[in-house]
Write a structure and sequence with these properties.
Layout (H helix, E strand, L loop, with lengths): L6 E7 L3 H12 L4 E5 L6 H4 L31 H14 L4 E3 L2 E8 L2 E8 L2 E12 L6 E2 L13 E4 L6 H4 L3 E5 L3 H12 L3 E5 L6 E3 L1 E2 L2 E2 H8 L4 H15 L15 H8 L4 E3 L2 H6 L3 E4 L2 E5 L2 E4 L4 E2 L3 E4 L3 E2 L3 H4 L25 E3 L9 H17 L1
Parallel strand pairs: 1-2, 1-6, 2-3, 6-21, 8-19, 9-10, 9-19, 10-15, 11-14
Antiparallel strand pairs: 4-5, 5-6, 7-20, 12-13, 16-17, 17-18
């Protein structure tokens, strides 16, 4: 790796899909761009996901600007194929990605933006007119502080650590959380013959990945211009027809419509990748949320208890922005940045964030759109 310069036109922090997309779009405007990533490979977070994972969004709508994911990788792109695509993308577009380089703090002074970095035993500061933070929506694994968690006699892992049933071991597994990771991990374990208990606190909106062979993402995009209420109604009808009533399996109707739950509560719908079949076949049993833990016993909020061999905590992530930009007053109490895409704060001109919107129309698709918006704003 060549020496890191003291200054650059634009610095992008993070070499996942968001960082690569915005690096390409900024370079296309003629700017000199460097991308930092603390990992040893591009798109490293994808290589750490569970083995079974495929994109829940359609291949054509999951490509970054300038290069379409090859059709040979299928409608639903596998984890390893997507990570390979990201690595190929960086090479094809000749992006200046500096791996193994951590950005520790972004500072503002009279001369502009200064970013402190570290790589092995080396460290320094790089200045840039434009800084784009693209460290990922799912950055820091979150585990609730259940009373007695440390006393549990079995194994406890976050979903970010889960790879496959064989590696986890155990015969009875408690999966906590019904988001996309929790639901798919529960299905994965059930298909491997494990006894699966799925702990539900708030009922999810479960939706199909495709309807009559058409990716659900296309259907969502077709109704996206409509008011929220209309989108809730239409998606709710499709949900009822394709998914049906899940209350017989212990999953009650979600408290809000699909679109409203996302926009108000920041809760994305759960795309069915095997959970419904596992529920119908009796391979996954729904239980209440965790109240406390004592040795091998997990007490639930409905006064019942279970004794799993292991617990998979699929309770989501935090954005992890405080250490990097916490001193700039750009982060909301919920951990999200105050701005995203081309938006700017008066006190932080030239500082951008990308990848923090999590829209129902598909996050990866939105990254390409927002990358173009940032480049357009910077050029202007």
């Amino acid at each position: 790796m060549s020496a890191i310069p003291q200054s650059i036109d634009a610095l992008v922090i993070g070499a996942g899909p968001a960082g690569l997309a915005v690096s390409e779009e900024l370079a296309r405007t003629g700017l000199a761009v460097i991308t930092f990533d603390k990992a040893d490979r591009v798109g490293s977070s994808w290589s750490r996901h569970y083995d079974r994972l495929h994109l829940h969004t359609a291949r054509r709508l999951s490509s970054l600007p300038g290069t379409t994911i090859p059709a040979s990788r299928g409608q639903w792109v596998a984890r390893d194929d997507f990570q390979r695509y990201l690595a190929e993308y960086a090479i094809e577009h000749k992006l200046d990605v500096r791996l193994g380089v951590s950005a520790s703090a972004v500072r503002r002074d009279t001369e502009g933006w200064a970013v402190d970095w570290r790589s092995g035993d080396s460290s320094g500061t790089i200045r840039a007119s434009v800084v784009v933070v693209a460290t990922g929506y799912n950055h820091t694994p979150f585990t609730p502080e259940w009373a007695g968690l440390s006393s549990f006699s079995g194994r406890v892992i976050h979903s970010s650590e889960y790879c496959n049933p064989a590696e986890l071991g155990g015969s009875t597994i408690l999966v906590v959380g019904t988001g996309n990771s929790g639901a798919e991990i529960a299905a994965d374990l059930a298909e491997a013959g494990r006894t699966v208990l799925l702990s539900v606190r708030t009922a999810p909106n479960v939706v199909p990945r495709a309807v009559a062979g058409i990716p659900n993402q296309y259907l969502v995009l077709s109704i996206s211009p409509l008011p929220r209420g209309a989108r809730d109604a239409i998606s709710g009808v499709l949900q009822k027809i394709v998914i049906g009533d899940l209350s017989r399996y212990g999953i009650e109707k979600a408290p809000r419509g699909i679109v409203t739950q996302l926009e108000r509560d920041d809760v994305v719908p759960t795309i069915d990748a095997g959970l419904i079949a596992a529920l119908r076949e009796g391979k996954v049993k729904v239980v209440a949320s965790i109240d406390s833990i004592a040795d091998a016993t997990v007490r639930l909020t409905d006064a019942s208890s279970v004794t799993p061999d292991a617990i998979v905590v699929a309770t989501g992530y935090r954005r992890g922005l405080d250490d990097l930009v916490g001193g700039l007053d750009v982060v909301l109490p919920n951990g999200r940045p105050k701005i995203n895409a081309q938006a700017q704060l008066a006190d932080a001109p030239g500082l951008y964030f990308i990848g923090y919107s999590n829209p129902i129309t598909g996050n990866i698709r939105q990254l390409g759109i927002d990358a173009k918006k940032i480049a357009k704003r910077v050029k202007r």
